[in-house]
Every structure is written in structure tokens, then in C-alpha cells.
Amino acid sequence: MISKHYFIYTFGCAMNEYDTERIAASLEAKGYIPSDNVEDSDFIVLNTCSVREKPQAKILSYLGQIKILKEKRPDMIVGVSGCVAQQEGDKFLKNNKVVNFVMGTDAVSHIDNVIDRALNGERFADTQVDSNDFSISSFQRKEKIAANVTIMKGCNNFCSYCIVPYVRGREVSRTPEEILNEIKSLIDKGVKEVCLLGQNVNSYGRNLSTNVDFPDLLSMVNKLEGLERIRFVTSHPKDFSDKMIYAMAENEKVCRYLHLPLQSGSDKILKVMNRKYTYADYVEKINKAREVMPDIEFSSDFIIGFPNETDEDFNDTLKAVKEIGYDRIFAFNYSKRPGTKAYNMEDNVPANIKSERLNTLFALQDSLYDEKLPALQGVQTDVLITDINDDKEFPYYGLNMYNRKVAFSSDKNLQCGDTAKVLIKNAKRNCMYGVEV
Ligand code: SF4
Which residues, including other chains, have CB under 8 Å from residue 136's CB and lie 6 or more apart? Predict the structure, then answer.
């Protein structure tokens, strides 16, 4: 029998990566074998993201390449999932003849049926939203040391630039029991670290009758034997409470790293973005977290060149980055997204100014981080090994509690999943290098 192969191209966030695992598990249960090569594949899924303009344009260009392949192999099945699929539905199917099926974000919950329909030759769009219920049945996971676990879907915040609440719907949380069971089964398979995923994890549990909020959930996950580390993304600053700070501090498995997206240092811009906090509110939370956990590290997202962003507004962002001292930042030029409130605002910061500001921001972050590097050397840090490669000098690789990448050497025969104490000899921007002690 000739083996059939599948290929999934994942765009966007960790929620999409998680859904990709669910789609892959279903294809494998039907006998498909994963492939790294789209050209050899019989079943292709593009798991899309519509948060920014660039990835969306990339999807269309990718479909152009697949069209050429499909002309030679008309039996190839091509599906599109994720946020673009949810947003465009039938229209996407109509405009892209190469596509066999379009599955919205909730269609992953009945992925077996979606695949069967496609294999039976049906051409369809499934974008129905299961708004009141969010349950994920167990699925076969690949062996890993660190795994993502989705705890909720959707968002109630309506930031003016963001499409997520329109495509992923309102917030709905999975029950604590279901989440704990998924994590327990991951631990049984050797997982040592989980990352709890949601668009706004700080509002976890609001639709549940259990009275379990996110800090409570962290404490419950912390108690699971065999698990060593807990991470989570994403936290909306307005919902990041004192209770969250204490839950992070008191549960020893929770990493000392918080991604708290500020987006802009200007109150004027934050207001138009509908972020519902001021810069002062944000700094107060950062200071409180540092008071309770002096070693905590932060990262943030920034949108550069939002409509009406002046030099002064941008300088407020630079000032914020200096004042807070992030470990890492993620920043993008603003692009208009159809369907959002900001779509109707004039995108009036010229592209060259956006790029200039973005470069200035990255240069500032790099110089601030470079100043921090010497203090990271000579320090011992615990590293959870997630990868062993054939690098002669530093074969072991993993992250520490502060989400920093560490490559190191050891005289011992260590395994993936072991935690090693590493003395950092050389700290560079993208990775720290050391030796096990
Ligand atoms: S919090 Fe704002 S940026 Fe994040 S998903 Fe919700 S609407 Fe989008």
C-alpha cells in the first residue's frame, strides 16, 4: 500500500499550534504520515492567522504555489483553517478554487468529520461557532518535554485593532477538570512543562459555574506530581490582579516570566486602542509584581505607527521600554485589519516612518539588553533540557525559569526532560552558554 502524507503550515500564535496538533492527530489516526515537504503531500492544511496583514498575504502567495502542484496532482486535498478561514468562510472557498475545504476555528472540535467530508470529495466551508461550550476531547500528542494546553477560547476585550473577538467569539473556558486531565495525561507521556493558552488567561473561568479563576487554576496545576514548570500566555494588563501576582509567587512551578503586552507607552494611543488601562496603571502592576518577586522578568508586545501616533507618542513608548527594562519585546508595524474598529481610522503614519520607529525601538531594546548581559554571566540557573543536538561544544539546550534560552555542556549523559544546574559563562542576546555544575 502506498503511504499518504500530510503537511500542515501553521501561521500565527500558540493557539494555532495547538489546533495544528489536533488536526495532525486526526490525520494520523486515519493513516496519514507527516511530511516536511508540501510537494510530496496528499493532504495539506494551511492553519491561518489574520491578526496582521503580512501573514494573510503570505497565505495567498502560498496557495498560488499549491495551485501549481495541484495542477499536476488534482487529487491533492487542500484545506484552510484558523482565523482567516473563520472570517472569510464561503467567500474564501469561492475565490480560491484550489481549496477543497475551509474550516473555522471551532470546526477543529469535529475535525474527524471535516476530514471525512473532504476525503469523500465534498467541497465546503464549515464556520459554525459553538459559542457556549468549549470542550476539547483527548487527542494523541507527540512525545515532548514541553506542551501547550488551551484553557479558553475567544476574547471579550475588543481592542480596536484586533480581529480576534470577531473570529474567535466571546470568552469561553474549559472546565478545570478537563484541563487537569489533559495535563495529567501529558505528564504520563513525559511532559515536564506546560504552557496554558488563552487570548486573555487572566479572565479564565468567568463563564464557569465553578468559581475557579486563573490564579486558582495555577494552584491546581502546580499540585500535579511530575510536572516541573508552568508558563502561560497571554495576560491582559487590565485583568492582571494582585491575586495573580501572589499565585505566581506562591506556586513554585510557575516560571518567573510574564508576558504583559503594553502595546504603546502613550495614554492617548492606549485609549484609541481601547486597551482600558493607562501607562501609570500598567507600571503600578509591574512594580507590584517586582516587589513580590524581585527576580521576575517581563516581555511585551508593541504596535508601532497606530493611526495618529505622533513622534511624542512614540517617544512615550521608548520611555516606557527604558523605564520598565523588558527582557524581550515583540513589535510590529500597524496594519489595518478589515472588520476591526480601527479599520475605519485613517492609517496616516507613513510606512517609512513606521519602519524607522520600529528600528529605533529594536535598537533601544538591544542596547538595554546588552547592558544586562554581563550580570547574567557567572550565575547558576536551572535549565529544563528540551533538545540534545550534535553540537560538539554545547549539545544540551533548554529554557530556564526566566524563559531564556541556554545551551550548555556536561560530562554526564543527560536526557531530554532532565533539569540541570548550569553556570553561565557567556551571555549573548539570543542565547546563554554555560556548563553544567
Ligand atoms: S485582548 Fe485585545 S489584542 Fe488580545 S485578543 Fe483580545 S481584543 Fe485582541
Answer: 22, 109, 150, 174, 178, 182
